[in-house]
Design brief:
The structure is a homodimer. Chain A has one helix and three strands. Chain A is of the alpha+beta class. The first copy, chain A, starts with 23 loop residues before the first strand and ends with a helix. β1 of chain A pairs antiparallel with β1 of chain B, so a sheet runs across the interface.
């Protein structure tokens, strides 16, 4: 019997608000798969440990990824 | 008494090998913090659930992030 291919995305609601990179504990990127047809981006907030789903298409997320790449080149040896 | 600021990076060994985006379950980006002075990138492999630390400076990681952005624009509605 084939496995049932039900939609199992992590994110239900997605936020479009900008996120401060300094307030983030981590950012998870979950690629599209058989379970969820689109990429999911989940930000964990440092203080509250709240997990927020972000819109991968938004400027906020693009800026976040850019911010991390800048941080890399500044701080890594 | 102040908190001790010990180094608590997640990654000990870092791989430079290229990673196939299709084989990944998720990618975690942990920004530099008081606990770890550099960005950490952790890839979870689908089949084995193995977590691999990647070099944020490597072409492989830059290509991964690019691959995800392409996937986004292709698959999201």
């Amino acid at each position: 019997m084939p496995h049932a291919r039900t939609v199992r995305c992590v994110c239900i609601t997605i936020r479009n608000q900008p996120v401060n990179p300094r307030s983030l504990e981590k950012l998870e990127i979950i690629p599209a798969s058989q379970f969820c047809p689109h990429v999911e981006i989940i930000a964990t907030v440092k203080k509250t440990k709240e997990r927020r789903c972000l819109n991968p298409e938004s400027k906020a997320v693009k800026n976040l990824l850019k911010a991390f790449s800048k941080e890399r080149s500044k701080r890594s040896p």
